[in-house]
Amino acid sequence: MKGSKGAVLATVAAGLLWGSSFAVVKIGLRSIDPFWFVFLRFAAASVLVLLVTVLTGRTRRVLALLRNPLVVWLGVSNAAGFVFQFKGQTMTTAANAALLINASTIFVAVASRFVFRERFGLLKVLAVVVGMAGVFLVTTGGRPSAAMGLALRGDLLVLTAALLWTFFILLNKQIVGGHAVDVHALTAAMVTVTTVIALPVALVFGRGSFPKPSVELWTVPYTAIFCSIAPFYLWTWGLKRITATTSSIVLLTEVVFALTLAAVLLGERLSPLALVGSVLILAAVALASRDKGEEAPVGPDVVPEQTGAQPGEE
Fold it and tell me: Which of 75, 150, 198, 209 is 20 to 30 A from 49, alpha carbon to alpha carbon?
């Protein structure tokens, strides 16, 4: 029981850290180009995870994974997802971004039916209907004619990121499903590929040269450490001790905390109808995660570890 309580607390902590990323990224984007932000975040994260890789003797495992085309595509989809999210966040709110990114859970529920032939029960059908209604209300405020503008363009870019992370999650399930994969080595390989892909994107599409020092530059190491590495290890530790369904429900704290920080730090407020939409999205994520036999999909910063792994297994 004590281990279970500790795992829940660790998962809550992971959700809070991931939830903080949306407001922090919005702050960083005040002076940092979104394309360079993505590169800098993952460059810092890759240095740290590769250092851990060397210290723990996983270098050969990482090099082997880097030769796997599926792992390369995992990093490509992750980089693309963050590029679209960060660019979208220059046009829309942190609150909308947090809600729409988590819609990837709903997209995975649909895609898994065709890719993995997973059972599509009543809960999933309800999750899709409720979730899509929530997305509509969040992006349009219930008035499609009044939503055509910069904010909607940003919302659509963030939704594109959610779709890209749907591909990321499905690809990840393909890699880890039925195989003994070193989750730490896989994460190091994925983060490394993400960094390599993000650099040419920043060079081509970024505004000007390498970002100059600014007041908001602290957001880069913060997101690298506290929104990528630290929550991943907290979440993984917790997932070894609680079920995937419990973990996914607890991780709804991510969205709640993201909305709270957006209100406190950025003064963002959801319209009444958008607030209804946010509740619908959260309900849809919970419904999709509670469907029997379904492995709960997770966010783009993490690579799931199978819950069936032995306690001492890396």
Answer: 209
Computed on alpha carbons and rounded to an integer, the radius of gyration of the chain in Å comes to 19
Instruction: Write the DSSP symbol of residue 92.
Output: S
Mean pLDDT of 43-60: 93
Supply the pLDDT for residue 296. Answer: 46
Task: Please state the rounded mean pLDDT for residues 263-273.
Answer: 85
Residue 189 in tokens:
């390989």
Residue 240 in tokens: 């070894």
Q: How many whole angstroms separate alpha carbon 12 and alpha carbon 220?
A: 23
- Which contiguous run of DSSP H or E holds residue 235? helix 230-239
Q: Tell me the CA distances in angstroms from 195 to 190, 238, 280, one per residue in order.
A: 9, 27, 35
Q: Measured between alpha carbons, how far is 102 from 37 in angstroms, rounded to an integer?
A: 21
Indicate the DSSP class of residue 22: H
Can you tell me the distance from the alpha carbon of 251 to that of 19, in angstroms, rounded to the nearest whole number?
Answer: 9
Nearest CA among 156, 189, 157 for reference residue 172? 189
User: Looking at residues 215-226, what average pLDDT do you find?
Assistant: 94
